[in-house]
Amino acid sequence: MFAYIARRLIQSAIVLFIIIVITFTLPYFQPNGIFAPAYTALGSRSSPHNVLVWATQHGLTQNYFTRLLHYLSQLVFHLNLGHSYKQSLSVNSIIGLYVPRTLWLALSALILTVLIAIPLGIFQASRRNTVADYAATGTAFVLYAMPAFLLCILVIDAFGFHGPHLPISPPSGVAPWAIFTDPVAFILPVGCLTLLSVAALSRFMRGTVLEVLVQDYVRTARAKGCSPRRVLWRHAFRNALGPIVTILGLSIPGLIGGALIIEDVFNYSGLGVQTINAALQVDVPTILGITLLVAIFTLLGNLMADVALSLVDPRIRIEGKQ
């Protein structure tokens, strides 16, 4: 197990290095090239001379490989993600302020998704081709096909101006744990993010359970007299968890990406609003830092999914020993 984790960490480091190089290179292809932050920061004073002076002061006139090596050394040895020209803050400070808010939002949605989607998928598989199954399937298809911003707008219209009233925007400028001190204000954003995730995971859970139910060992269990409930929960559910664990690990970046849109619609001061502002202001260091952070979460999600899969499915450990 430890050798497997070490090997995966080395592979993740290589992938992360490739992502860093790609994201570091992309700003060279934007309008005005690598000098774009200078034009944004100077505004109406962006004459060629002023742009050159500003770029020289911030190290933008150095060649590509010198800047890349300096960025990598600062990142690896000092965990320094750079400095935001627009906000006059370090990228570490910006991420430290906004990321916990987004993480709590995404984790809350992930927990609710697991608690709702897995039992719902099992219920659909056990009631296959019934009215309840068709109703749940139709609802899941609608939610799965619906853009996140459209669902948020419909929810705001329903609960902000009609029907039972709920806060349409969480409190801003508060501590990251405000989701626990004022949970009512987070019902709509967390609910929207959960619905979008439940739609996909419940359908996947349903298909996985149905695939397991036709296996030979399930027929053998039924022939031995096992009750339908025991067959469903003891045999089908345990063997269907493997693919679900993998999907959950891969859904972490999707949850963070969905949180970015939901934060913007609900005007919640999290990583989503900060990402959009950084993109509009051509704040390249902040965009690089956020992209790197999301890449790290993605790689960690994959690693945790692989480790959890080896714990859920003993056959993986047996094959690894062989």
Short description:
The protein has helices at 2-25, 36-42, 48-57, 64-78, 91-126, 131-145, 148-160, 178-181, 187-213, 216-223, 228-265, 271-280, 284-312, 314-321; strands at 83-84, 89-90. It is mainly α and 322 residues long. It has a domain at 99-321: MetI-like (MetI-like fold, Orthogonal Bundle), CATH 1.10.3720.10.
Secondary structure: elements and pairs:
Elements: H1 2-25, H2 36-42, H3 48-57, H4 64-78, E1 83-84, E2 89-90, H5 91-126, H6 131-145, H7 148-160, H8 178-181, H9 187-213, H10 216-223, H11 228-265, H12 271-280, H13 284-312, H14 314-321
Antiparallel strand pairs: 1-2
Helix pairs in contact: 1-13, 2-3, 5-6, 5-9, 5-11, 5-13, 6-9, 7-9, 7-11, 9-11, 10-11, 11-12, 11-13, 12-13, 13-14
How would you portray this structure in words?
By secondary structure, the protein is mostly helical. The protein has helices spanning 2-25, 36-42, 48-57, 64-78, 91-126, 131-145, 148-160, 178-181, 187-213, 216-223, 228-265, 271-280, 284-312, 314-321; strands at 83-84, 89-90. The chain has a domain at 99-321: MetI-like (MetI-like fold, Orthogonal Bundle), CATH 1.10.3720. A two-stranded antiparallel sheet has the order 1-2. Residues 318-322 have low confidence and may be disordered.
Strand content: under 5%
Largest sheet: 2 strands, antiparallel
Distance between the termini: 13 Å
What is the CATH domain class of one domain? Mainly Alpha
Please state the structural category: mainly alpha
